[in-house]
Amino acid sequence: MLNLQRVAMFVAVVESGSFTAAAASLGQTKAAVSFSLRQLEAELGVSLLLRTTRRLALTAAGDTFYRRSVTLLQDAQGMLDDVQRDHRGLTGELHITSTPEYGVQMIIPALTAFQRRHPDLRIRHVASTATDDLISGRFDVAIRLGRLADSTHRAALLDRFAILPVASPEWLNHHPVDSLSALAQADWIVHNRLTDPLRWQLSGPDGQRVPFEITRPVRFSADSAAALMAFALQGNGVALLPAWLVSEAIERGSLCHLLPDYAFPMQGIYAVYPDTRHVAEKVRGFIDFLRQRIALSAGQGS
C-alpha cells in the first residue's frame, strides 16, 4: 500500500528543489524527509532522484512518478473536500489561473462571489499570459481564451467572443483603411503567442469565407491583450483584440472598429482542468457558477 505522506514529501522535495526547503515547508526535519524518500524508493524498487552535491534531478522513473503523484494527491484532497462538504460546504483551496485582462474583468469578481457562498474555501489566483502546465503548476482550473491546442486535460466551453481589428483615430487619420487590401497592408500589432498571427479566415458580408493575410512587416508585438491595446491607443497601428476588452474604448471613440462587415473567427472561453478519475466538487461547482455568471452577463449586455 502506497504511503501518501511519503508521496507528499517526495512531491515537496521535487517542487522545492532540496530536502532542506521541503523539510521547512512540511515542518519536518531534513533527516525525516530524507529517510522517508529512501523508504519510498525501497518500496517502489526504483530510484526517483539523482542526488549530487549541488542539485537534485529526477530520474526517468521519478519524472513519471512525480506527475502521477501530483494527480494522486489532487484526487485524495478532492475526495476529502467532498466528504467534508457534506457537513461544512466547500473547503480547501481552489487554485486557478487566467490571463490578467480576463481575470480582472470576469474571473476575480466570480471568485469573490463564489468564495462568499463558501466561506471555508481558500482562493489562490495566478494571472499569467503563459499556458502554464496544470499538473506541474498544481492548478485546479485554468481559464483559456482563444482556440485550444490538443491536450490530455478536460475542457468545458463557457462562452464565445468576437475579436475585432481596432486602431486609434489618430493613426487612421494618416492611414485610412477602407478595404481588406488596405487592412492587410496596415501597420499591425500582433500577439506573439498565437501560432500564426498573420493568416486568418474571415467571414464576408454575405457569409462567404475570405482568406486574409497581413503582408506588411510587423513592427510591434506583445504577449498580452492589454499590451496590444496600449500599443494601439498610442497610435502604432492595428491590433486584433477581444470585443469584451475594447468595447468601452470603441464607445468612447479612443479606438475604432475597422471594416465591421468582415468578421474574424469567433474565439472560445474554456475552463481546463486535469483529467482525473475524481473531479473535486469545488472544481465542478466553480465551473458551473462561472458559466452561469457569464450567461447572465451576456444576457444583461444584449
TrEMBL record:
<protein>
    <submittedName>
        <fullName>LysR family transcriptional regulator</fullName>
    </submittedName>
</protein>
<dbReference type="InterPro" id="IPR058163">
    <property type="entry name" value="LysR-type_TF_proteobact-type"/>
</dbReference>
<dbReference type="GO" id="GO:0003700">
    <property type="term" value="F:DNA-binding transcription factor activity"/>
</dbReference>
<dbReference type="Pfam" id="PF03466">
    <property type="entry name" value="LysR_substrate"/>
</dbReference>
<dbReference type="InterPro" id="IPR000847">
    <property type="entry name" value="LysR_HTH_N"/>
</dbReference>
<dbReference type="GO" id="GO:0043565">
    <property type="term" value="F:sequence-specific DNA binding"/>
</dbReference>
<dbReference type="Pfam" id="PF00126">
    <property type="entry name" value="HTH_1"/>
</dbReference>
<dbReference type="InterPro" id="IPR036390">
    <property type="entry name" value="WH_DNA-bd_sf"/>
</dbReference>
<keyword id="KW-0238">DNA-binding</keyword>
<comment type="similarity">
    <text>Belongs to the LysR transcriptional regulatory family.</text>
</comment>
<keyword id="KW-0805">Transcription regulation</keyword>
<keyword id="KW-0804">Transcription</keyword>
<feature type="domain" description="HTH lysR-type">
    <location>
        <begin position="2"/>
        <end position="59"/>
    </location>
</feature>
<dbReference type="GO" id="GO:0006351">
    <property type="term" value="P:DNA-templated transcription"/>
</dbReference>
<dbReference type="InterPro" id="IPR005119">
    <property type="entry name" value="LysR_subst-bd"/>
</dbReference>
<dbReference type="InterPro" id="IPR036388">
    <property type="entry name" value="WH-like_DNA-bd_sf"/>
</dbReference>
